[in-house]
Design brief:
The structure holds two protein chains of two kinds. By secondary structure, chain A is mostly helical. Chain A has three domains: 85 residues, NADH-ubiquinone/plastoquinone oxidoreductase chain 6, subunit NuoJ (Four Helix Bundle (Hemerythrin (Met), subunit A), Up-down Bundle); 46 residues; 44 residues. Chain A has eight helices and no strands. Chain A is globular, with a radius of gyration of 22 Å. Chain B is built from five helices and no strands. In chain B, helix 2 packs antiparallel against helix 3 and helix 3 packs antiparallel against helix 4. The radius of gyration of chain B is 19 Å and the shape is elongated. The chains are: A mainly alpha, B mainly alpha. Chains A and B meet through helix 1, helix 2, helix 3, helix 4 and helix 5 of A and helix 1, helix 2, helix 3, helix 4 and helix 5 of B.
Chain lengths: 183, 110
């Protein structure tokens, strides 16, 4: 079997294992480690799917920034173990029934969409963009050309969203300026 | 499309990727619904966003169209905003109540 294909399948299985660690582990630091494993495995899958820039962003932004923020706050809050003694909600069976319904819905949806058609993805790839070939697809040049031309408005809009998030965070935590007391 | 990876992407890889995305999204949704601490719920949402990203990147490769990758960058930014605001809310709630268990909030209301 081809090395890329083997690594792709292995990374997918590792990602699912990381997700299972996230939902099963009692302490959030273990759950965060499971999520980190899943994110690194997904970065490997992106790289194999020729999304090199997205793989780099996944490692820098998700594994490097977001997960560090989450782990930092897990340690900063120093939560007593009472919160973690019972990992699951008391509405476990209600929520489980909802998840089961969601599973059945997705499985039926996927079944009616692709079952019995082993060539469905080949048929999709026939209508692929004729301007690009599989050998030259991906890479930062194609990515940034698209981002800076067709998606320029979305890019600027998303930067506005980031700014709004910064303002929201500052107003939520209510920084203690000049010794003024809150509440 | 003659390379082994190209054949994999247009064949079995599609079913495999959809299965991975499906399972990861369900695990994320289950974490959000079933766990009882706010930090776990936040991480469940992160896992769901990651699963959707894999879907976008896979179909970008299948259609050889870069738009899916650009959209997944937008999802990154939305996830970053969501984590920042979510963690700020968690810190504020923890300062007020001393706990992050969501059931405690409804029990201690008043």
């Amino acid at each position: 079997m081809d090395f890329n294909v083997l690594m792709y399948i292995l990374s997918g299985l590792v990602a699912i294992a990381g997700g299972l660690i996230l939902i099963i582990a009692k302490h959030p630091i273990r759950g965060a480690m499971g999520l980190l494993i899943a994110m690194l495995a997904l970065a490997a899958m992106y790289a194999i799917l020729q999304a090199h820039s997205i793989a780099v962003f996944q490692i820098i932004i998700y594994a490097g920034a977001i997960m560090v923020l989450i782990i930092y706050f897990i340690m900063l809050l120093d939560i007593k173990s009472d919160d973690y003694r019972r990992p699951f909600s008391k509405f476990f069976w209600l929520g489980g029934a909802f998840i089961l319904l969601l599973t059945i819905f997705f499985v039926l949806k996927l079944y009616f969409a692709i079952a019995g058609q082993p060539d469905v993805f080949k048929a999709m790839s026939l209508s692929a963009n004729p301007a690009s070939s599989p050998d030259t697809f991906g890479g930062i040049e194609l990515f940034s050309k698209g981002l800076m031309s067709r998606y320029l408005f979305a890019f600027e809009f998303v930067s506005t969203l980031l700014f709004a998030a910064i303002v929201a965070v500052i107003s939520i935590v209510q920084l203690d300026w000049k010794g003024r007391k809150n509440e | 499309m003659s390379s082994p990876l190209g054949e994999f992407v247009t064949g079995f890889g599609g079913f495999f990727t959809l299965a991975i995305v499906f399972v990861l999204f369900l695990i994320g949704a289950a974490t959000f619904i079933l766990r009882r601490t706010l930090l776990h719920m936040l991480m469940g949402v992160e896992l769901m966003l990651n699963a959707v990203n894999l879907n976008l990147v896979y179909f970008a490769r299948l259609h050889l169209n870069i738009d899916g990758q650009i959209m997944s960058l937008m999802v990154f930014v939305v996830a970053a905003c969501e984590v920042a605001v979510g963690i700020a809310i968690i810190v504020r709630l923890f300062k007020r109540t001393g706990t992050i268990g969501v059931e405690t909030y409804s029990e201690e209301r008043g």
